[in-house]
Automatic annotation (TrEMBL):
Protein name as annotated: 4-aminobutyrate aminotransferase
Family named by the database record: Belongs to the class-III pyridoxal-phosphate-dependent aminotransferase family.
The keyword Transferase is assigned to this record: yes
Taxonomic lineage from the root: Bacteria, Pseudomonadati, Pseudomonadota, Alphaproteobacteria, Hyphomicrobiales
GO MF term set: pyridoxal phosphate binding; transaminase activity
Organism per entry: Mycoplana dimorpha
Length: 437
């Protein structure tokens, strides 16, 4: 264990920790971070996707420098600032017509989803919200209240109903998964959840923390149709898989749906804290002083976000996510031919997941092997984490700037890590302090 990592434990609380190995970093550039031991590690996590352009991207650095050298205050609560106005105008141009109303700015996916959850109930007068089992919408009281991830230690909202997210792998086929999930929804609407009482339906267009689940074809379209029929607001949580990561700007575009409200976070600030909610004017303007934190609308973070959006366009990073994602996906499917531990490879663009199982027939989750694999990969020079309600899905959310060479470099390290785990070359006791989630 490195010096910095050990020292951290004597001053920094563990309450925000979600650790998989003893990583301590002192710098980073592009798709690599520098450990305090001097090692260069290839970063396939990008801080859970937040470092969307990689580390120390010059466009973000220049934007932040400019914004700080003549700083337009620190907040949009009591004064307009140009960066926020420009960013709002830009975001409005990037969502479907029905969401093209107003933009609210926050710090994180959590405060954004919490704001949406409060806002839709107050604005519509309908008390209920629907979200998915396994959904991660945030870590604050109000965002946990509308989430369904089993690792969370919080209570759910009284008006929340969780419904199954279709899992094509576990169900055996996309059709079976879709039919079961839709039948469940229709039954609920006909019985204990009167649809006219539902304010909003929260979706993740790919359920990332729940296991990088890609919805079956036609599923989100059917959810959209149900929402329209009952005037339920459709909320797309694009926090992890949006902003080009999936190979489209918005991940919901793969399904051809048009949500009423779109939530952005993580990669929006390119590593700085900023989130945004985009939606209809009557909902987003239904009250003043309703959801605010002092440094919301910080012009420095907004300038970084503008630079991120401009760079995604200028450098064709959506196309890169699609192309490099294909290369990485192909490499991972190649690994599946060599390693029986791999049960499924899925995802879109540079939002990919690899589900590990002890038995391909029973699909028994290989949680221990998953934890060992990410630990071993770290030792070998690759940073990636795992997700999933059964803690057995390797998650790939690298910078959108990843090159095909880096994709293959990472896949080669993962190949070695899997081989080492299967051969018993990784010491299980390493995991003692790394419970993950
Ligand atoms: C991470 C995440 C959030 C919460 O974002 P924070 O920045 O952690 O507050 C919300 N929704 C999704 C889909 C996420 O992946």
């Amino acid at each position: 264990m490195s010096g910095l990592y050990a020292r951290e434990s004597r001053s920094v609380s563990k309450m925000a920790h979600l650790r998989f190995f003893p990583q301590a970093i002192v710098g980073g550039n592009g798709a690599y971070v520098t450990g305090d031991d001097g090692r260069q590690l290839l970063d396939f996590a990008a801080s859970w996707g937040a470092a969307s352009l990689g580390h120390a991207h010059p466009a973000v650095r220049d934007a932040v420098n400019r914004a700080l050298s003549d700083q337009a205050g620190a907040s949009y609560l009591s004064a307009a600032n140009e960066a926020c106005v420009l960013l709002a105008e830009k975001l409005l141009s990037l969502v479907p017509e029905r969401a093209r109303g107003r933009v609210w700015f926050g710090h994180s996916g959590s405060d954004a989803n919490e704001t949406v959850a409060r806002m839709v109930v107050t604005a519509t007068g309908r008390p209920r919200i629907i979200a998915f089992d396994g959904a991660y919408h945030g870590g604050t009281v109000g965002s946990m209240a509308v989430s369904g991830h089993p690792a969370q230690q919080g209570t759910r909202a009284k008006g929340l109903t969780l419904v199954p997210y279709p899992n094509s792998y576990v169900a055996g086929s996309p059709e079976a998964a879709k039919d079961a999930a839709l039948a469940h929804l229709e039954r609920l609407f006909a019985t204990e959840v009167p649809p006219e009482e539902v304010a909003a339906f929260f979706i993740e267009p790919i359920q990332s923390d729940g296991g990088m689940l890609v919805p079956p074809e036609g599923f989100l379209e059917a959810v959209e149709a149900l929402c329209r029929r009952h005037s339920i607001l459709l909320v797309s949580d694009e926090v992890k898989v949006g902003l080009g990561r999936s190979g489209r700007f918005n991940a919901f575009e793969h399904a051809g749906i048009e949500p009423d409200i779109v939530v952005f976070g993580k990669g929006l600030g390119g590593g700085l804290p900023i989130s945004a909610v985009v939606g209809p004017e009557p909902i987003l303007n239904h009250a003043v002083a309703f959801s605010l934190q002092t440094v919301h609308g910080n012009p420095v973070c907004a300038a970084a976000a503008l630079a991120v959006l401009e760079t995604i366009e200028r450098d064709h990073l959506i196309e890169n996510a699609e192309r490099t994602g294909h290369a990485l996906g192909d490499a991972l499917r190649g690994l599946a031919e060599r390693h029986a531990l791999i049960g499924d490879v899925r995802g879109r663009g540079l939002a990919l997941g690899v589900e590990l199982v002890t038995d391909r027939t029973t699909r028994e989750p290989a949680a221990r092997q998953t934890a060992l694999t990410v630990f071993r990969a770290f030792q070998l020079g690759l940073v990636l984490y795992y997700v999933g309600v059964r803690s057995n899905v390797l998650e790939f959310t690298p910078p959108l700037t990843l090159t095909q060479g880096q994709a293959l470099e990472g896949a080669a390290i993962l190949n070695q890590a899997l081989a080492d785990v299967v051969a018993g070359r990784v010491d299980e006791s390493l995991l003692v302090n790394f419970a993950g989630w």
